[in-house]
Structures are given as C-alpha cells and as structure tokens.
Amino acid sequence: MKAVIELNLTLQISRRLGAVTLLASGLVHLKEYFDGYAELPVIGLLFLLNFLGAVVLAVVLLLPTERILHRYGTILVTLSAIAGIGMSLMSLVMLAIAERQPVFGFMEPGFHPGMILLARITEVLTVVLLGAFLITLLVRHRRRINGRGTHVETA
After folding, report:
1. pTM of the prediction?
2. Which residues are listed as membrane-spanning (predicted)?
3. How far apart, in whole angstroms, are the C-alpha atoms of residue 142 and residue 140?
4. Which pLDDT score, from 0 to 100, does residue 1 have?
5. Concatenated DSSP letters of 24-54
6. Per-residue DSSP letters for the chain?
7. Is the Cα dihedral 72, 75, 77, 80 positive or negative?
8. For labelling alongside 52, which of 30, 35, 108, 149 has CA 20 to 30 A away?
9. Which residues in the chain show pLDDT less than 50?
10. Domain ranges within the chain, ordered by starting residue
11. How many other C-beta atoms lie within 10 A of the C-beta of residue 140?
C-alpha cells in the first residue's frame, strides 16, 4: 500500500511541477517576444506560439482533467506531458542552433544572457519532471497489469 501512495505522490508532484516549469518557459518566451522578438517575422511568431502552447498544456496538466473527462482525460494528460517534453526539447535544440548559425534568418545575439539561462533551466526541468511523470505513470500501469497495485487517480 505504501508503494501505491508513493507512486501517486510522485505522479502528483512531477506532473504539477512539470506544468509550472513549462508555463515558466512559456512566460520567458512571452517576455522575449515583447522585448523585441515580435519584430522578427518567423521567430517572433514562434515565440508567441511557444507561450500559447505552454499555457494550454500547463492548464491540462494542472487541472483534474481525468475527473472531468474520465478515460479521455488520462489520454489527454499523457499526450500533454509528451507534447510539453517535445516542446521543451525543441526549444533547447533551436536555441543551441540559433547560437551557432542563423535560423529563419535570425542568429541569437545573446543580448539577454539571464533570460537565455532561465529558458534553459525551465526547459530542462520540464523535460525531467514530465519525464518522471510519464515513467511513474508507466510503472503504475505495469503494476496494475501484473495485479500488484490498486486503482489510484492521478488528478
């Protein structure tokens, strides 16, 4: 029983903190958007879309989505965690590339090193936390299949 409680606690903490770090990453992109990136045709739009995507995914991860949508909620939460990881990884990769060569005609000049560091930290934390959430979800699912666990809601 203690293992089930620990799994549920890990699910709750990693999911909620992952949503918060994802939202923080989106807010970094929004700040940069308003601090000049809006003037860049493609890059500005991508920064704005990053913020909007982060908000939508974070809301799904923060709300008790499974209680609202039942079985479909579990699927939506899982897909949102995967999307959050993908979005964070893509942001990290694109930043690394833009620091070395132009992307859509833009090369990161490094004018805001603090914001770049904050973006990297929030994106890495998002990958780690939502990754931990998905791994814990998989462990719980396998325990259920093997008959060693009882049903516990993730929301």
Report:
1. 0.87
2. 40-63, 75-97, 117-139
3. 5
4. 63
5. HHHHHHHHHHHTTGGGSHHHHHHHHHHHHHH
6. -HHHHHHHHHHHHHHHHHHHHHHHHHHHHHHHHHTTGGGSHHHHHHHHHHHHHHHHHHHHHHTTHHHHHTHHHHHHHHHHHHHHHHHHHHHHHHHHHHTTS-BTTB----S-HHHHHHHHHHHHHHHHHHHHHHHHHHHHHHHHHTT--------
7. negative
8. 108
9. 149, 151-152, 155
10. 2-145
11. 20
30 with 51: CB under 8 angstroms?
Answer: yes
103, β-bridge pairs: 106
| 22 φ/ψ sector (left φ>0, alpha ψ -120 to 50, else beta) | alpha
Q: For 68-98, what is each residue's pLDDT tens digit?
A: 998 899 999 999 999 999 999 999 999 999 9
* Cβ neighbour number for residue 72 with a 10 Å cutoff: 11
113-145 vs 2-34: helix axis angle to the nearest 10?
150
> Using CA of residue 11, residue 119, residue 88, residue 72, what is the dihedral sign?
positive
